Amino acid sequence: MDRSALDTLFSAAGALAMLGWAALVVAIGWRRHAAVLRRFAGRVVPLGLGVGYVLLIATNWGPGGYGSLAQVQELFSAPGLVLAGWVHYLAFDLFVGTWIAERAAADEWPAWLLLPALALTFLFGPAGLLAYALVRGLDAWRKRPAARAA
């Protein structure tokens, strides 16, 4: 696959992921359609990106592997596999962001508490998940006074 085709796929994947993140943020303020928006953000978009990921892996697989850092570096020396890795990030970060939003909605978190976790997940993936887990743990601890006294 030539470089301009990869650039086009990069842009398309980014636009699709941004559409999913936008749906996730809109869902916070639009409770009537929040479930549909979160389903689009957390299911439809990641699955669409997953199709792109599989196609990129299938058509660009080459030397390298996952057995050592050197093998991973060799694997990602191919631009098509770098794009596959990027699509992987886009799909999984959005899926995790949606999972966080669904859990926060079930726990009736206010938007001011959810938005920082989503922003961190959007920008730094696992850091957002960690922030969400810490805040959720503190919230659960705060709501269980009997458990604190024990």
What is this structure, in a nutshell?
The protein has 150 residues and is mostly helical. It has one domain.
Approximately what portion of the residues adopt beta-strand conformation? under 5%
The major beta sheet can be summarized as: none
Assembly of the depicted chains: single chain
Got a strand count? 0
Question: What structural category do the secondary elements indicate?
Answer: mainly alpha
The helix tally amounts to 7
What is the N-to-C order of secondary-structure elements (H for helix, E for strand)?
HHHHHHH
Cα-atom radius of gyration:
18 Å
User: Average pLDDT, to the nearest integer?
Assistant: 93
| Terminal residue distance | 62 Å
Please state the overall shape, judged from the principal axes of the Cα atoms. Answer: globular
| Unreliably modeled segments | none
Q: Helix fraction? A: over 70%
Q: How many domains is the backbone divided into?
A: 1
Description:
The chain has 150 residues and is mainly alpha-helical. The chain has one domain. The longest helix has 28 residues. This is DUF4281 domain-containing protein. Keywords: Membrane, Transmembrane, Transmembrane helix.
Descriptive terms for the model:
mainly alpha
Topology (SSEs and partners):
Elements: H1 3-29, H2 34-60, H3 69-75, H4 79-106, H5 111-124, H6 126-143, H7 145-149
Helix pairs in contact: 1-2, 1-4, 1-5, 2-4, 4-5, 4-6, 5-6
